[in-house]
Amino acid sequence: MGHYDEFLIVNNSSHKIEYRAINLNTTNTLVGDSLLILAPTKSKFYCLDRRFKGGGEDKEDYAIYPPMIFADSIIVCYDDTICITHALNNTITIPENNFLYGTSWTTNSLGDRQLKHTFTFTDKDYQEAFDNQ
Question: pTM for this structure?
């Protein structure tokens, strides 16, 4: 049957956001960009549609859960000045709303074998980055 996944990254903050993936693992399926810049109130949409393969052959029947990129860390900068590292380990400051943790994403069903995953940057995230400078 295959699976359909949407990923939406939303900037609900009043600051320009830029993120860059560090030590990207490209052997896994990559959905999205390793570098993304979002103006305030803007968003970026990505889609991975694995429902069908040529000739009607079924594809893998598993969802891709967030995050949709596989990296050691993500550096998020606000307004090109205030930066914070989102990491998968405790040796670096891990923000509360960590891009690399699936629990920071909201997942909703769009239908049978169809999911929409949303990550939202907020002014609270900016404040946490500012406070940790």
Answer: 0.83
